[in-house]
Amino acid sequence: MKYILRQATIVDHLSSHDGKKKDILINNGTIEKISDKITTAADQEISIPGLHISPGWVDMQANFRDPGHEYKENLLSGATAAAKGGFTGVCLQSSTDPALDTKAQIEYIKRSSQNLPVNVYPIGAVTQEREGKEMAELFDMNQAGAIAFSDDKRFIENPKLMELALNYVKNFDGLIIHFADTPTLSSKGMMHEGETSVFLGMKGIPSMAEEQGLNRDLYLVAYTGGRIHYSLLSTSGSVELVKDAKKKKLNVTAGIAAHQLFYTDEALKGFESLHKVNPPYRTQKDIDSLIAALKDGTLDIICSDHSPEDVEHKNLEFEYARNGIINVQTAFSVANTALRKKISLQELIHKFSGNPRNILGLPSAIVEEGLPAELTLFDPEAGFTFDKGNNASSSLNSPFFGVELTGKVFGVFCKGKIVL
User: Fold this and answer.
1) Which of 24, 85, 171, 286 could form a disulfide with 282 if both were Cys (CB 3.0 to 4.6 A apart)?
2) Is 305 a catalytic residue?
3) Which residues of the chain have pLDDT under 70?
4) Class for the domain spanning 2-52+370-419
5) Of all helices (H) and strands (E), which one includes residue 61?
């Protein structure tokens, strides 16, 4: 099939057409022509005021709950939400039931996602059943298609086990994605430890819980030379630790979830369980540090941390509610709203596309003639309001319902098809 995107502004620093408004002809999944005006007949033309296109975005941290908890989300509903959110690729965490800790489990995800509208990249567990006791079959999972390895939001407390994993994945240039935490400090915490937690009388999660866990890992990375990534940092102290590690040329990359830029811990004053996340919302000082770190390159990526939960586990008293929000459909709009006039659009898109691809070893999706078309279609200036009517996820645990955001996604071009 032939598609023409009319007068689309190209946002791609690797493209010779970066910043230009062009017609784009896509033929059988390949960018055939980029020109000021294309007169060739096409099967479908897309002409949308304010249309921008960029290389397809990749989400490095999401959960689709399949296998085991498909009533919260399944691969199809999650992939549909991802396409609506502008992601052409999604990395799925290992915290399923059973966990993605064997070759067979990775093959199940790969096989089940073949016909989905976006690319799905399974993340294998570092340890068996994510219990932090014995290393899982990392090489076998790598051969089966695991993009990286993580125990999701379980910190691997045994430093020897973590050292072994970092050393082991060096044999095939593997990547460990870890959650920075110190469980003895964060246990039973419900929000950021600070003035607001004291005011509300809730047990807090101190910044040092994240920073101490991160600091330990950085020593192990320096010792082993292994590669490690943190998708979910949240504190100013963590930013400084990563900045120092990068100055030392350690193999570390890092990022944040989009909602960490949008809300502070003061959002919890109404005890609304939709705001219960891990890591928790921090302070405005932390947000300012995160933004500065995105600007100077200390933080490499922005992810969704999409974590669907059903009503029975989320619509409870704050103390008993599960952590997590759905965000794969809103991550760009949330980040764009928080970062407008603070970083350039090119920098923002690089956090969603170029850097995740580089870290994961995925091909660049350059907007250039003769190359495969894997594109995101969006308008960074258009208003967008997320609601239950346009939500594609199977779950409803979003703190962004009814919130006016800036930045609208129109769809994606992926696997030779356009999804609008």
Assistant:
1) 286
2) yes
3) none
4) mainly beta
5) strand 57-62
